[in-house]
Structures are given as structure tokens and as C-alpha cells.
Amino acid sequence: MLILCATQPGRERALAFQLMRKFFAAGPQELRLISVVARDDVKGFIYVEAARAADVQQGCAKLNGLYSLKPQIIDLDEMIGALTVKKVEVKSVSQNQFVRLKKGKYSGDLAQVMSVDESRGTAVVRCIPRIDLQALKSEGRVRILYSVIGPWLTPVRYRRRPSASAASVLRKKCSIQRRSCTHHSH
Description:
Elements: E1 2-7, H1 12-26, E2 33-37, E3 45-50, H2 53-60, E4 66-73, H3 76-83, E5 98-100, E6 110-117, E7 122-127, H4 133-139, H5 142-149, H6 166-185
Antiparallel strand pairs: 1-3, 1-4, 2-3, 5-6, 6-7
């Protein structure tokens, strides 16, 4: 049977290892556990497989951070879903491809992939330097910037045009109607 035991959040994996070490130290005759699973997506709980719930309580005794006073027995229908790992699709990158960095000091910056090591799951990237358009505008160098970088740089709007108020829109409509009315009468 599969039993769900509550743990301190963040210590699931460490407590699963402690429980397995306790099993190997005591031996299979003393501690009758079959397996221990700590899933990364289930916070604050570990799954323990044993023949009886009493075996799980015996194994969890005297382990700090593992709460087995009320172990929750997982139904047979839920066991498959509890231990099934969903495959995550990993996006592959290739050499000379442009990517956007997600974490760290350079998050949000553009980078070019220089080399990819598939066996290690790593890539070497070259960061494209950030350009401070506000500083270049204050120096009067924005036109030089556009000609050097090229047409792929979209211009940044520094100031928005204020939206028209309702009164000015009505005035405009009234003046258009008056013109059309005066034009037809002649």
C-alpha cells in the first residue's frame, strides 16, 4: 500500500533519504518499507510504500520533520496518478541561434548561442550589450545609433500624445456637421 506522509516543506528529499538510510541501517527484517518517493512537484509530502500503515509509523518514528501521526492511505485508483511523471518538453537550441535569457543579472537580455553541449545540457552564449537609449538621446547620438545598428531596432516613443477629451471630440463632430449643412444649403 502507498501512504502519504506530511513533512516540513522544503525538506522532502532529505527526509526521504533519511528514511531510506534508517531502513538500510535497521535491515529489512526490522523495518518493512518497500520504497520512499519524494516528488519535486508535491511540496510538504512524501510517498512511502509498505505492507502496513504500522510499518510506516514505525519507520517515521524519531525522524525530525516527518509527521506520521495520521498517514493518509492512497487509494488504488490514485496510485498511478500519484507516481506518474509527466514528460516535460525541452526546447532545443542550436548554434548561432538568438535566445532571450530568463534568470540572473542579464534576465531579459538578448544572447547568441555560441556552442551547445547536449550531453551536459549546457550552452555557451554571447550576450548582446544593452543600449541605453535615454543616455544616447540626451547626448544627441540617437541618429548615429540607428544607422549603426540597422533597421531591426524599433524606435522607442519617449512621450505619448495626450488622448482627446470628450469635449474636443464633440466640438470636432459639430464643426464637421455644420460645414456639411452649410455646404448643402448653397
